[in-house]
Write a structure and sequence with these properties.
Strand order of the largest sheet: 1-2-3-4-5-24-23-25-21-22
Number of helices: 4
Radius of gyration: 28 Å
Helix content: under 10%
Number of strands: 40
Distance between the termini: 35 Å
Shape: elongated
Oligomer: single chain
Largest sheet: 10 strands, antiparallel
Length: about 525
């Protein structure tokens, strides 16, 4: 399999498309693109467009096309970043499904991918484990023990693959202990005992019997049996645990009556110290070796970790179209290796494969891939990230004292009601360098979103060059000032140096027609 565009990035020639640099050394193209720029990879790899977006400190989204053909979206997480926190996502209960956008927005996640295989068309509950902030939400069914796990590590996080099992017991009045086989599971093991708590939700547990001829359920509140039934219930009340046995598991519960003293306990075994974990069906790569088996091409979702556990990749490959055919397990394993993954696990694919992200300037996540069902499939869980980074922000208007500079060629106007503040500046376009500059005191070197405000008018410039002084050099983004006026318009996310200096400029050097406008800029820590 050819190297993907991501692997080629460091050695390939990058050519900026659709935003050419101005013909002056002061406006040279930066070494690092703004978050929303598209770049073409000039190589013989068969790779296509690569777009890289900085979503938050330590988290980027890469969208690329590779040979196959395949469209791939990749979340790359620096787990050592202390403001980046992993999250297990679900709709709020185990026996439920919801769009991944809903699950991510529920906890304020910046980005996420779908998670585990699940009981589609019935309870909707996942097959493997769900571990959220150290709490076991649901236990793995037998054979569904492989997980992607994340652990606290200093101020950040460390990740890797693990096997986690369920240790659950029901202690009877005489002290005898029964082993429970399931926790909030969509099916109970043959002759087994399942434990269900309020996290299960509203789903009727008659769906988990899997053809069992006998069942018995007891409810335990404050250590006492409060209800006994041969018919499974549904929602479990707060403070109560339901214990459901099937066949010989039901027989083991047969002697219990209301008032009996019963203790129910459960804990994960394995993955010691994991705070977040989600199950998958197949380990793709283990210690750098491909362990995948043959399987047809399909849309895929996978998670991988570097050998030191400090970098994590969440990958979605689109499929089932002529534009993106999907991958086999072996192809996916090799692709994860090419990204740098030393370990990787396959999550649910097909119509479930979804990646969502909150793009710069947005207030909620949106779907960034193309699900093969044509829309998001409701799924039971996902894995993603929240950020605790403080959103430092500063606004500089053309009237801000000591923060705006322009030559006498720039006039002052109050003509448009879309202006920011009392007035704005305007100038005729010329093929010469005569930029108006906004000075900003950047608190620390980091990635920042740069947004601009201008009034829009049919007589204003349709290709206004905005210059951003990044750590890699001046980067130019052109904006059509005839549209989107009277609001903040994002130029992208850029690496800025710490210090008090001119950060954003508006140049008159353009072949576009109409007045060039300079009104206000906003700089926000990404």
């Amino acid at each position: 399999m050819r190297r993907p565009a991501v692997a080629v990035l460091l050695s390939a020639l990058l050519t900026l498309t659709g935003a050419g640099a101005l013909p002056t050394p002061a406006l040279a193209t930066a070494a690092r693109p703004p978050a929303t720029s598209a770049y073409t990879i000039a190589s013989a790899t068969g790779a296509g467009t690569l777009a890289v977006t900085s979503l938050a400190p330590g988290l980027t989204l890469t969208s690329t096309s590779i040979s196959g053909p395949n469209q791939v979206n990749i979340l790359t997480a620096d787990l050592a970043e202390p403001t980046l926190k992993p999250r297990y996502l679900n709709p709020g209960t185990v026996g439920a499904t919801a769009a991944l956008t809903t699950q991510a927005n529920r906890v304020g996640a910046i980005a996420a991918v779908n998670g585990d295989f699940f009981d589609i068309g019935a309870t909707g509950a996942p097959r493997g484990i769900g571990l959220d902030n150290g709490t076991l939400v649901n236990g793995p069914a037998s054979g569904w023990n492989a997980v992607a796990a994340l652990y606290p590590a200093g101020g950040g996080t460390r990740g890797g693959l693990a096997e986690i099992f369920l240790d659950a017991t029901v202690t009877l009045p005489g002290g005898a202990r029964l082993t429970a086989t399931n926790l909030n599971s969509p099916n109970i093991a043959a002759n087994g005992i399942g434990v269900y708590n309020p996290l299960w939700g509203d789903q009727p547990r008659s769906q988990v019997l899997d053809g069992a001829t006998r069942s018995r359920e007891i409810e335990v509140t404050a250590g006492r049996v409060t209800k006994v039934s041969t018919a499974p219930g549904g929602k479990v009340a707060n403070g109560t645990v339901a214990v459901l046995g099937v066949n010989t598991g039901a027989d083991a519960l047969a002697g219990l009556v209301v008032g009996d003293s019963v203790a129910v306990g459960h804990a994960p075994r394995g993955g010691d110290g994991a705070q977040v974990a989600i199950g998958g069906n197949l380990v793709l790569v283990k210690d750098g070796a491909v362990t995948a088996v043959a399987h047809p091409k399909n849309p895929r979702t996978a998670v991988g970790f570097s050998a030191d556990g400090l970098k994590m990749w969440l990958v979605v490959v689109d499929g089932r179209t002529t534009a993106s055919v999907g991958m086999t397990y072996v192809e996916l394993a090799n692709y994860m290796k090419s990204l740098g993954a030393d370990d990787a696990i396959n999550l649910d694919g097909g119509g479930s494969s979804t990646l969502v992200a909150r793009m710069p300037g947005a207030t909620s996540v949106s779907v960034r891939n193309t699900p093969s069902d044509g829309a998001q499939r409701p799924v039971p869980n996902g894995i993603g990230f929240v950020s605790t980074a403080q959103a430092w922000s500063a606004i500089v208007d053309n009237t801000t004292a000591g923060r705006f500079s322009a030559s006498a060629n720039w006039g002052t106007s109050t003509y448009s009601g879309q202006r920011y503040g009392a007035d704005y500046r305007f100038a005729d376009p010329v093929l010469a360098s005569d930029s108006a500059w906004y000075k900003v005191n950047i608190p620390q070197a980091a990635d920042y979103e740069v947004s601009v405000w201008y009034p829009a008018n049919a007589g204003y410039n349709d290709s206004t060059p905005y210059i951003v002084a990044t750590t890699g050099g001046n980067q130019t983004v052109r904006v059509n000032q005839r549209v989107n006026g009277g609001q903040w318009v994002s130029l992208g996310v850029f690496p800025l140096a710490a210090g008090d200096a001119n950060v954003v400029g508006v140049s008159r050097w353009t072949a576009g027609t109409g007045y060039v406008i300079a009104d206000a800029v906003r700089i926000t820590r990404a």
